[in-house]
Amino acid sequence: MDSDNDGSGHVQTYTCDGKPDQQIIACNDGTIRNMAKNYCLTPSNTGAGTGDLTFQPCELYPSVPDYQKFKTGGSRSYTDASGIKQTGYEYKNVKSNLCVDVNASGGHGNIAIYNCQNSDDQFFYFRNRGKVVNSGRLRNQKSGQCATADNTGWKSNIYTTPCTDSRKQYWTHYENGEVLKHGIKHVYGSRW
């Protein structure tokens, strides 16, 4: 799920790039938000809870309206290419009780609210990386130096430097093969 660059506007499928507009949070109040602007998933026809989905400012006072709330429906499990079990869910708009759907064949395109059909393009999942295999400093065998990120944000250059106690040198290796800077929950680009 991806929004127009800055975390607002139209919602569509797009190649995963790990940027904050693709970091999605299912909140306890029923809203689905992105980390870029903390905007809520909102259907274009708010009166009916239908139409194309966009990320718009959340309406929290006096309470979240039903058209900005979602609940889970059915679920499906499968094993991904890394051998990790993933569980996808239908997300239904509370106002219309209809499903979040990729508005095109093949799973690519704009995302909208549509009649629930128990089809693959209506199941979404928060990717499971599997168990933590290892964590700590990632040391180069030849130099003895540690892999170091140049900042603590979501996007960093990586180089080797003498090992220290810096958080920039702590990494987590997951069962699916991904290695992430410790404390970061997403990867920019492909696997390391």
Automatic annotation (TrEMBL):
UniProt-listed Pfam families: Ricin_B_lectin
Coiled-coil ranges (or none): none
Ranges for domain Ricin B lectin: 29-174
Source species, domain of life: Eukaryota
Annotated protein name in UniProt: Ricin B lectin domain-containing protein
